[in-house]
Design brief:
Helix content: 55-70%
Largest sheet: none
Number of helices: 3
Distance between the termini: 19 Å
Order of helices and strands: HHH
Strand content: under 5%
Radius of gyration: 18 Å
């Protein structure tokens, strides 16, 4: 099966399941597009929280920074699932 979606979507699935999932992904571009938009908005929100200079005086700044970085990394990994091969 040849799909435009990342291989990880189909790892561990049988041929019929792979085909069904590929069809589902291809036929729900509006839903997937909206999910990508929401994730990008959340990523931008995290970036705006990280950059504020007032946080540098906070003794817990490093902990907060690590938290935001971890959340941003999770969002980036999730967004990568929705990138189409060749993009």
């Amino acid at each position: 099966m040849k799909s435009k979606f990342q291989l990880v979507w189909f790892t561990g699935l049988g041929d019929k399941q792979k085909e069904s999932l590929d069809n589902l992904l291809n036929n729900n571009s509006m839903l997937l597009g909206r999910l990508v938009e929401i994730l990008k908005e959340r990523r931008e929100m995290l970036l705006s929280k990280e950059v504020s200079e007032k946080h540098f005086s906070d003794p817990e700044w490093a902990i907060r920074q690590a938290y935001y970085s971890g959340q941003r990394k999770s969002i980036e990994e999730t967004l990568a699932l929705f990138s189409i091969k060749g993009d």
